[in-house]
Blue (type 1) copper domain-containing protein (Chlorella vulgaris), 156 residues
Amino acid sequence: MAVTRLCCAALLLAVCATAMPAHGQSLSHQGRRLFQMGGMMAAGPGPAEAPAPGPASEGMDIALDWGFNTYPDEEAMVGDSVTFNWNGGTPHGVYRIPDGTCPSSFSPAPPTMEEVGAVAGEGSATFKFDAPGDYWFACQVSGHCASGMLVKFTVA
């Protein structure tokens, strides 16, 4: 039994070491989720123990630096939220849009076209994912979306 525990501990350390980012890089959202959930593993004939899922309201907050960048597709879970943060004096805002096409105008049409964060020189806005699906967000300042300031979240 002690040998099994020792092997499990060594395996968990090896998995964690390979999941760690290089110096100066951050963990992926999936990597942060593994560490947040405690990444439990078990060996032997019995079933693997996994952390009990919490209520959907207890999700992870994903911080996103919001500015003139191109953004890779992101992943999240129902109950997670994304917080868009921007500063530096250039006005930005956050709008949820129906798909990856920049709209000709940003006018509310819930539930897929809604303002998440008002335009300001600096600020933050948070959106909570309450259902699975694809969620698109863009900056509603003229020309910013067309310059690549949009991001897609796939929520499972």
